[in-house]
Amino acid sequence: MTLYNYFRSSASYRVRIALALKGLSYEYIPVHLTRGGGEQFNAAYRELNADALTPTFVGEEGQLLTQSLAIVEYLDETYRDPPLLPASAVDRAYVRSLALQVACEMHPLNNLRVLAYLKQTLEVSDEQKSAWYRYWIDLGFSSLEKKLSSDKRTGLFCFGDTPTIGDLCLVPQVFNAQRMLVPLDSYPTIVRIASHALTLDAFKKAEPAAQIDAA
Amino acid sequence: MTLYNYFRSSASYRVRIALALKGLSYEYIPVHLTRGGGEQFNAAYRELNADALTPTFVGEEGQLLTQSLAIVEYLDETYRDPPLLPASAVDRAYVRSLALQVACEMHPLNNLRVLAYLKQTLEVSDEQKSAWYRYWIDLGFSSLEKKLSSDKRTGLFCFGDTPTIGDLCLVPQVFNAQRMLVPLDSYPTIVRIASHALTLDAFKKAEPAAQIDAA
């Protein structure tokens, strides 16, 4: 198995956590998202990933997969232990909704190409760019905190006491927020879950700083 | 079953297609996203949906679900006929990646609250706002067209000759693009699939213009 990815890419980080939790080994091929204008735009990489996004996953039989949550669901269906989704359809929908809240409502607004558009095309100031970043983090984390702090299914992790795809999305998003110096005092449940997750070897192994391409 | 939704909301439209394909009847409760500053911000609605987004789905036993793709996966797991995902894990991942490409890379950048932030906070011009809209549509549709026009799994629909969650995301995104007058001449496969889908009763029934809250 091969993962084309970037140490600091949030979507790559999600897949690394899943691979580590499943105990799967893989070849790590770095795709530097900023060096030389971005290696994701190289023709060779775009043959693998027309979107010029990371990660790209290549499975044991050469299956080429893109989109982090599609890759994670594939890993969960193919390598079942430990499961990354609960057993009942309703609980699965709840956990998926937590993951999608990060993946659809927060991360897309703050990824590299969006920030580049704001800066280069709309010519916003650095202050406006930071305010934009914080705005979407705060909007998303406020409602996630509300859910996680009130739902009885919350445990050591987003759902119960073992990691699910909710945590796979939450932890990289907390990493991003911290890197951008967004204050997280208003989100104690989120911070508690992310801190707990990072006590596990699988989450530690997937952290940006532990990757071969870490700056 | 109840669906709180808005006729023109792309995420609502996805769920309506799934419900129609499964032949499920439901109560339609309109949540007007612009009237009176947006009914999604009303306290009563936020009790159901902390994110103040549509749709919100309430199942037969009162299960409260949010996030369109989580709801669609729930419906597919609970009401299996017809299936909205292929049988093999690799094909499922491929179809999910098509859906996520719309749901994570295109739609989040062009939804109402993002356009409102651009206009009100960043004070961009109407021209800049339209250019932003077109930019993310073109970026997403370009790579989707490349995939769909070259992948052997493409049929009358995104995957084979029956609808999947890929089509559930694609058709509302095409509707959005057309409404915003984005030229689609460069995306013949996408246009062909969306046009074919709209010959089916289930897709017609889910169309914005067919809803009780249509303007």
From TrEMBL, chains A, B:
Coiled-coil region: none
GO biological process: glutathione metabolic process; L-phenylalanine catabolic process
EC number: 5.2.1.2
Keyword Isomerase attributed: yes
First-level EC class: isomerase
Pfam families documented for this protein: GST_N
GO CC aspect terms: cytoplasm
Domain GST N-terminal: 1-83
Record-given protein name: Maleylacetoacetate isomerase
Domain GST C-terminal: 88-215
PANTHER family named in the record: GLUTATHIONE S-TRANSFERASE YFCF, MALEYLACETOACETATE ISOMERASE
Cross-referenced PROSITE patterns: GST_CTER, GST_NTER
Similarity section: Belongs to the GST superfamily. Zeta family.
GO MF annotations, alphabetized: glutathione transferase activity; maleylacetoacetate isomerase activity
Keywords carried by this UniProt record: Isomerase
Lineage top rank: taxon: Bacteria
InterPro entries: Glutathione-S-Trfase_C-like, Glutathione-S-Trfase_C_sf, Glutathione_S-Trfase, Glutathione_S-Trfase_N, GST_Zeta, GST_Zeta_C, GST_Zeta_N, Thioredoxin-like_sf
Originating species: Paraburkholderia madseniana
Keyword match Isomerase: yes
